[in-house]
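Anyone? Bumping this.
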Amino acid sequence: MSTWRWEWALLAGGLGLAGIPAAGLHENGGLKPSQNPFAVQRSGYGMVLARLAQDSVNNAWHSGLEGDGVCEHEHEHDGACAHHGDSGDGDAGGPPAGLLSVAGMPPRSHARERKTIVGQGIEGLLELKHAKLHRTNPFGLTNAHRNKVAADIETILLRSYRMDPSDYGVYNAYLLFLTASDLRARPGTLEQAKQVAGWSVAAAREERESPFPWLTAASALLDEFLLDQQRARELGVELPRAVISDYGIQMNACLARVRELQSQAEAEHRWKAVGAERAASAMERLHFLERAAQQFAALAARAER
Amino acid sequence: MEAFRLGLSTILARKTVFVWVVLLLVGSQVFPWLTPWEEKPSLLEPARAQTAWVLTWLFVLGWGLGQAASFGDQWASRGVLEYLRCLGKGRYARLFQVWASCCAVCLGFVGLAWAVSVITALPGDRAEAGMWLATNLQYGWLLMLAMAPLLLLAISLGTRLSATAAYCISAGIGVYGLVAIGYLDLFIGDSGSGFLRFLYLVSPHYHLADLTDRLVFKMGALEFAPFLQTSLYLTGVGCVLTGISCLLYRDRK
């Protein structure tokens, strides 16, 4: 047999050899890529990337609300975030405040503290980037542009969230974007928000060392309850007593686990490594959630059935 | 085995491979310190294994394919392959000896990654340790099954095109099968196009050889049936690429 026939035989044989198991793998879904190459998401590296992404998450979040892409003050994006009040401002019929920069208003000046040369260089590049997206058309914002802005912001938030669903910062930013942002909040996205909260609760279930994922889970349970309450209000019904009690039980269980793992971390001298600022912020959130969890018993008692 | 010895001595003389070895040995211990391991010490060991295997992929896709393409280009241009033909070496003997020199180095690197993963990241529990060993063995086997035919393709393409073009094509196929095919999967979900579905089916699914998530999330080794199916599938893809490589190969440009 000539070499040419061997090569074509190898080609044909290879196609057959690959085709039969490929069909079997395709049937049981084994051929489907995992969308998580090299398992970066939810690994230790994913956790680091989620924390490092806080700045770009904050910038993306504020791009949707304030439009300048830079927040001049430090705060957490919780339900009491003052920016929620900004999103409805503006003249009737005009673009919401969240899209001021894309509607032609100049962006705010950045913080006045002296920056290094590198900092100034980065700021200059950011200003060029904002100028590229700065809308100069004085006429109304098109739906297509609005949707593009929303999709771009959601891409950044979702990418960071996928890195570590148990990280409070990225979870909260994404949830608030789905529920409170003018660009995305719609009746349909509330179901998506509930699903996101559910994923963060599930992400904590396997955690046996760090209290932070359980703290995020407790926040996510509170968010789920508030979303359920909102939907019930819209339907003109009340949440059943059993549902309210169940949320209370789950939240208390998560908070108990937070206390347990925090004590364990202190005993093993790991709590110091968290950092004073992060520890203080976590304790503040823990106190807030414990006060919130105490209300469930009273709410359940007041519920009609 | 003149071509094999020549290839291997060329690789060792260039010393680039030793830089990668140091990067693997040191990087697999140092990079995991970037994770929040002080808060959660259990992150450290899976991160070591993850780093070792990711560096192995980068080594094969970055260095391995480049070296193979370079051999094909330079040896075909300078008449080395033609000289070996004059010595009476068969067509396939020349091609596969060059391939074997690149493969041997890549196999050594895979072995090193396996050793790093097993020695520095082995779970304490006996049952989990057994699963860890098995998963790492499966990983090494599937990785070589996926990448070895691409090395052959890079050599053959190098005998026809420049080293850069040969590297770009073979590395492009590798990266496509490993990462980009995930995006194609998303598009198929949205559009349902018949052409895209056909393209998806005939594409090389190298992501099947990426068992990093089984190590990081401690999912245990692949069961025998899917492991055998995956091995047969990658062997089939390898045979197709081998056939194409044998058709493309020539001794002189």
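Late reply, but here is one note on the structure posted above: Chain B touches chain A through 55 residues (CB under 8 Å).
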